[in-house]
């Protein structure tokens, strides 16, 4: 169930809304208008930056290959 960001065209209010497939079209919480514009927003990935840093190898020092040291021919 994604959370979408909306901007109301009628009053300018910006808000977030959890949207299910079966839920009715959202409306503005302030003016109750259904004239909404879906905003482009960033998404969140599970975990935190510390756990991702340990899970992913560092790049190769010779060529920058993303699979880490020893993944390329420039060992």
UniProtKB/TrEMBL annotation:
InterPro entries (alphabetical): Regulatory_FmdB_Zinc_ribbon
Pfam families xref list: Zn_ribbon_8
Annotated Putative regulatory protein FmdB zinc ribbon domain residues: 1-41
Protein name (Swiss-Prot/TrEMBL): Zinc ribbon domain-containing protein
Organism this protein belongs to: Candidatus Accumulibacter phosphatis
